[in-house]
Structures are given as C-alpha cells and as structure tokens.
What we know:
elongated
Amino acid sequence: xxxxxxxxxxxxxxxxxxxxxxxxxxxxxxxxxxxxxxxxxxxxxxxxxxxxxxxxxxxxxxxxxxxxxxxxxxxxxxxxxxxxxxxxxxxxxxxxxxxxxxxxxxxxxxxxxxxxxxxxxxxxxxxxxxxxxxxxxxxxxxxxxxxxxxxxxxxxxxxxxxxxxxxxxxxxxxxxxxxxxxxxxxxxxxxxxxxxxxxxxxxxxxxxxxxxxxxxxxxxxxxxxxxxxxxxxxxxxxxxxxxxxxxxxxxxxxxxxxxxxxxxxxxxxxxxxxxxxxxxxxxxxxxxxxxxxxxxxxxxxxxxxxxxxxxxxxxxxxxxxxxxxxxxxxxxxxxxxxxxxxxxxxxxxxxxxxxxxxxxxxxxxxxxxxxxxxxxxxxxxxxxxxxxxxxxxxxxxxxxxxxxx
Length: 405
Ligand SMILES: Nc1nc2c(c(=O)[nH]1)N[C@H]1C(S)=C(S)[C@@H](COP(=O)(O)O)O[C@H]1N2
Ligand SMILES: [Mo]
C-alpha cells in the first residue's frame, strides 16, 4: 500500500487542517497571554505576539478557538501517525548524509517529526492536568509550535510539487472504488516509499484511509462532549476532567476545588470582605453589601485552557460598577487576587476592555443559586470571552489602575 499517493492523501488532510490548529493555538496564546499577570505562561521574549487586548466579544470567542484547537488536535493524531508510518523508509534513509541538500532535508524532517510529537505529547498531558515535569507546558507548547511551524513551512515548500504530482497520478474517486483484491503497488518512486519487493496486499488503500478517518472521527466523538452542555457532556469519555460532576444548577466542571486550593471556610464566612482599591482610595464590602448593589445577569461560558467549556447563567455586580465605587471609572487594568495562597492561578490581571464590558461580573450567584465553595463562593470573576484561568475564584481584592493616574 505504501507509496507517494497514500502519503500525499494523508499529507493533504494535514496541509488543510494543521493551519487551523496553528492559528487557533496562536489565538489561544494571545488570550492566555503573558501580559495578564499569572504564573503561566512565561514571557516568550522575541516570540511575543503583538500586544492586543483580548476582546470580550463575541462571548464565545475563546470557547470556539480553544475548542477547535483541542478537538482538531486530538482528531489529527491518527492522521499524523499514519503519515509517519507511510514514510517510514524515509526516516531510516541510509547513509544519513549523502549531500548538503539531503542533510538539510533530514534536519527539517527531524524538527517536523520531533516537533509534532512534542506538541501532541505536551497538549495531551496538559489536558489531563499532568504537570509532571515541573515546567510550564503552555510555554513549552508555544516554543514547540514555532519550531514545528517553521519546519512545516520548509517541508511544504520542498514537497508541494511532489504532493501535487502524486495526487494526480491516481484520481481519488477512482482509487476509492478499488478493493483489497485489486490493490497493486504504486510504481517505484525516487523517495523509495514503495517497497522494492512488495508482498500481497493485506488491505486496500481505501481501507487504510477509512481506518484512519474512522479512528479520527471516533476520537473526535469521544472529545467534543467536553465543549457541549447537557447530556452530550457525558460522551467525553477521553477527557474525564471536562465531564459533568453531578446534576443540578451547579453541576458543571470544577477546575480546582476549594479543598484543593486550601480555602479555609472561616475566611469565606461572615468575616469575608471584598477589598477594592484605586490609588489611595479603599473600600471593603461584605457579601450583603455586594448583594445590595445593582445586580446584573449574563449567560457566559467558562472555557478552560485545558480544553473543556460550559455555558452558565451568572449574576453579580458589574466590575465597572465596582471600579466606580473607588473612583476608577477611567480604569486601565484591574489586578484580582484570590484568598487562595499558593496556587498558580490565584491572581489575574484584567485589561481595561475586560473590566468595562457590561457583562463582566464579580459573580455572587450562578443559575439562580448561591455560588458553591468549589465554584468560588463568596465571589468570583466572570468575563465574556476570557479564558477560564483568568476568572479568579474566591476573590479577596481587586486593585484598579487608573488610566490617568
Ligand atoms: N483562585 C483560583 N481561581 C481559579 C482557578 C484556580 O485554580 N484558583 N482556576 C481557574 C481555571 S483554570 C478555570 S478553568 C476556572 C474554572 O471555574 P469553575 O471551577 O468554577 O468551573 O476557574 C479559574 N479560577
Ligand atoms: Mo482552566
């Protein structure tokens, strides 16, 4: 079966879909940017993306970019493996260095293959929250993506003519009518992908394509549930983190429980105060005082950078109203801090547009009931289109920077 045509079919699928994975990945990095004051991701030096504030509209923006990135990325794993299998003779080309051109080509292959395997590994581990090696997966994934993308561009430039020739050599529609019995080797090719002495076919080419396509669809079907609400969520068998913990108004995924975050119930009881600060102005409000302020309700997603997302109805005080309480109508940024002491996500910086959106809330209630401890009681941030990781739970204080200060 192996040969330039089959390799080119897998290659074409990747050529069309990988740019979408790359672009959504870059957008996700922009949304979860180093600019926003969390432990992750690290500053990436000259690979920094242009400083634009992540928009708040449409509110499903990050849910879609992150969902596409993760779901497509998982679905492409069988295609990548099949493509690697189809070029196995190339990977073990011997002697390894015949000419400068060949050495350069092999170097791009090393970066290409190493790059995509690294991206798959860091992506999948991150989704399972397996922060195993004590380094920041997001930043590693980001650097790996640039290495891979550069190698991909070089590879496409080198191989595109060959891909076109190979695809023209056997019209896809005709090839799909050929069963196992009629399967013949492709003619010998300069890359040596076709076996010198092929055995009898054990499978047709259309069978190989159907197998890979079927696996891809199966993986997708076991993944998309984490981006859907209701009963669909239960189909996300591969991503247990994104599944429904239980039914009822607060039965949606929890990133970090109050227990895991070390939240002391004594700190979230009647003694809890929200501290607002802008310059030398300070206000402290308890939950009753917050509930006495104008309440606003918005239906907004939480979309976790690890892949799952969910749409819920949040009620609380507008962040811009809180800014106004300390005279920071002209807010430039807000620095939110949690009661949580040691966690990586115990603080976040919100840009001006993210504070000023009329749906940006310090939520006190969700789906008509009080927040539960795990969802951030007594108060948590929720901002349209903002990655879940910046929607700080168990908020202790918000400090507003003023534009004119
Ligand atoms: N203080 C604090 N806030 C936090 C987190 C955290 O670990 N600590 N996790 C964040 C992440 S990564 C996500 S996806 C959302 C999840 O909100 P939920 O647990 O209410 O669904 O909370 C965010 N807020
Ligand atoms: Mo998250």
